[in-house]
Every structure is written in C-alpha cells, then in structure tokens.
Specification:
The structure is a homodimer. The first copy, chain A, contains five helices and one strand; from the N terminus they run αααααβ. The first copy, chain A, is mainly alpha-helical. Chain A has one domain: lambda repressor-like DNA-binding domains (434 Repressor (Amino-terminal Domain)). In chain A, helix 3 crosses helix 4. At the A-B interface, helix 2, helix 5 and strand 1 of A face helix 2, helix 5 and strand 1 of B. Chain A binds a DNA duplex through helix 4.
Chain lengths: 94, 94
DNA sequence: CTAAATATTATCATATTTGATAACTTTTGT
DNA sequence: ACAAAAGTTATCAAATATGATAATATTTAG
C-alpha cells in the first residue's frame, strides 16, 4: 500500500511541476486575464454589461477573459477594458 | 513688436496646452514607447541588433518605438521585446 | 566635412485580433 | 425542477498588427 502511495505521490508531484512550468511560461497573459476578470467582478458587471459599455459584444469579452483562448490582446483593447471598469492600464518592464 | 510677441505667446501656450492634452490621452501608449526605447538603450542594443535577437527586422522595431506611429502592439510582441532586452512584462490596472 | 552607422518611412503580404452573429452550455434565482 | 441569466464556443467578415523589403533620412564617428 505504501509503495502505491509513493508512486502516486511522485506522479502527482510531476504533474504539479508540469502545470507550474506551463503556468510560468504563460505568466503575463495568465496574470492579465485574472486581473481582467477581477476588475469586471469588482465593478459588479456581467460580461454583457461590460460589453455594452465598451461598445462590443459579450462573446468578445468572454474570449478576452478565457484561459482557454491563446489570443494576445492589443494594448488599446486593454486600455478600453480598464477604462470601462474604472481603471487605467499601467505597463511595466521588470 | 510687443503685440506680436504677445500673440505668439498665446499661440504657443495654446499649442502646448493642446499637445499636453493629446499626451495625456495617449498616456499608456506613450509611456510604453518611452520604456521600450529606454530598455533597448540600457541593453546597449541598436534597433538592428534587437531585431536580430527578436527574429524580426529593424524597421519593425522602429515602427514599434515610433511616437508618430499609432499602432497598438499586441501583448506577445511586448513580451518578446521585454525578453530580448532582459526584462519581463508586467501589466497592472491601477 | 564625410562616410558609415543608425533610424525612418512607405508599401505590400501575411497573420492575428476584433467585430458580429448565433447556437449552445453552465450557473443562478426562485 | 425549471426558466432566466450569464457565460462559452464556433464561424466568418473586417480591421489592424506584424513580417518582409527597399528606399530614404538622420545621426554619429573619425
């Protein structure tokens, strides 16, 4: 029983390590999406309402926020999203 | 002579005010470009060298950095620029 | 001052994002 | 449980960024 547990432990550690690696690789994009969603929710807006403010459609907001989507939004899109949720975009290079 | 100077002064003040307004409106984009240029120079790279590292052409770097250009770069483009100059992109919404 | 180095500009092709629409799925409220 | 609300997904059109090339302009080094 303990041998199976050790094998499972190693496998799980490997999986976590792999996920972590992918997470790190996608870090800025991942972080941006998390922030987009947080801002919208903090503003108490549905995707549809936000879309309305931004002059677009909810499906486009969904695409922007989706972790399954590999798109790389343009700066002006992020600026508009920020404004619509009461924020301002700030880009740094660290 | 003093009347002409006064007229020119007002005109210049108007122009500056107008430029300032446009500057403010374009603030994030303007700031990004300034940072791009600073990073490249800090890294001691010409546009041509940087282009080489990024796998593109110097003219494309020039376009990215140009204050006369109204393009809105994609996030992945900025990520690649950052990496090539030894930095990492960080996006915030303040 | 001058040539080399560096940067800019224009143009067209290609790639990718955003716009628009509709169908579908999941979540929420009662 | 069920309908409405909210979010997702796919698709195609339009818009825009990037790739690639070449000519031109500006800056720099000697």
């Amino acid at each position: 029983m303990s041998r199976t547990t050790l094998k499972q432990f190693k496998e799980k550690a490997f999986q976590n390590s792999k996920v972590q690696e992918e997470y790190d690789l996608l870090k800025p994009e991942y972080a941006i999406k998390k922030k987009l969603i947080a801002m919208r929710k903090d503003a108490g807006l549905t995707q549809e309402k936000l879309a309305e403010i931004m002059g677009t459609k909810k499906s486009n907001i969904s695409r922007l926020e989706s972790f399954k989507s590999s798109i790389s939004p343009r700066i002006d899109t992020l600026i508009n999203y920020a404004k619509a949720t009461g924020h301002e975009l700030k880009v740094d290079f660290v």
